[in-house]
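We modelled the chain as a single entity of 553 amino acids. Its sequence is:
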Amino acid sequence: MKKKKQENYSLFKISKALLYCVFFAIGIAQAQQEAPSWLDFAQKSENGQLNQATLSDYSYTGYHFSEKELPDVSTWNTISVLDYGAVANDDNYDDAAIVAAISAAEASVVPTVVYFPAGRYKVSSTETENTPIMIRGSHIVLKGAGAGLGGTEIFTDKRGNHPYRFEFKPLSTPNTKITNTAAKRILKGDFEIEVESTNGLSVGQTVELYHQGGENLDANMPGLTYNSIWNVANNNRGVRTLEKHVITKIEGNKVTFKNPVQYTITAEFTGAQLNRYETIEEVGVEDILFTSDWLNYPEDYKHHANDIVDYGWRALKLTNVKNGWVRNCEFKDWNEMLQISTCIGVTVKDIVCSGKKGHSSYYAIYSYGVLFDNCDDIVDQGLSRDNVKGQGHGPGMRWSTTSTVFTNCQMQFDQSIDCHGFHPYGNLLENVYGGCFRANGGAENSYPNSGPYLTFWNFVHDSRYNSVTFNFWDPVNRRTHTYGYPNFIGFTAPDPNENVTLQNTGLNELQGEKAYPLSLFDAQLQLRLYGAYMSASSSKPEYLAKYANDGKS
């Protein structure tokens, strides 16, 4: 973590680092086990047969699909909110000044940092509580002086009708059809598709691949039966894909994508199409502590008790963003903290969720390729109506989102991950410590909570159960962990007496052991960028995946 968030969090990070060191040392001491699914993936990749691999390729995730580091904005044009009338550490509202500074940044037509010098800024008055602060242009970063003591705090006072207080979103987000695909099947792992017409398509363009149809269920989750309550099984719906793809080549009626299709699309039955998809790009948020008056509201959180405890104060949302980021920030005392919606190629790195418990922490929805790296939930206040620490919904995947990766994230004891229904698919949680599967969100008609190709890699389960069975597919009895053939590789628990049985899985490899490579995401990225194969020998510190092939271009 580059910035310390607060003194108690510094101690938490030290404890977490020591804990990881202990687990790592134990793993080194034991015989290393390479996961068979990784061997299969590497072999299929070498043979150009990714669409036949059991595991999805999760490496097309994060800012520029993790092919570039997050940018150093120290050389960007910088304007201070103080120059537009903001005053830190007083009791006046700074909305107008912040909006004016953002407008100036948008008008500058050069990459610009909107800078918040150290101090506390106050937003959301009676006059502005229903008006979010919008960022509409590309190449704009909101940056503070750090999220810890002596840094920058932005405090949201009034809740209004529950908008996200800050939102990045283009002025226009058209979603009209460009062309139909050919009436033939598109396989998971494919990069090339055929279309009826290439008019309106160009190299470098980002488009949305849309498909829906009941036949896609058996093509991706063969042999499963469905409850009639679930929308996915009614009116030939199936799972809906809204995948964002970058076009790299057009040849005749063939279109090649940079990033792979993550779900087998049965276009021969119900068709598929490419839609317009407009974004803003190269935008971010850095080094800010976001707080709200949820702390002082006289009621504690209980799930769906009322709209205020669920949605009263909401912090930050990115909508239709390509190649964006949020880093080195803390979200303290919020009902909902961070939503990444309808985006592609976004990194959320080194963030902390803290303070009074609320509804949700951080999640992706309708997006492709969102990377959550080193995101920690230490929420430990306001527990009178729900005594489980952490936000009500943990790391989240919602509504058709795919290629979301959660890596090196800390959850609270017994906190649930959040596959929130309407069929997220093809997502990865690796080296996520703590938490369990007991209370995923989503109404029953939105089931399954997750579609196929959900993978847990070296997931450390930490819950209140001494003995528990998680049955991931039961179309008769409602279970809030209904996943389509989830994959578990290296599933462990810190308590050796915790007996966890996993039923109706796709894969269950090396349960109770550390799987190698330690990071599937790093290993797949190395394989894609450098052709470097990560094996059990990579457990040696000098050969960790992140350092492999340094100096190669």
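As a brief sanity check on the tokenised model: Confidence is low (pLDDT under 50) at residues 1-31, 545-553. Helices lie at 7-29, 36-46, 95-108, 215-220, 267-270, 307-311, 520-530.
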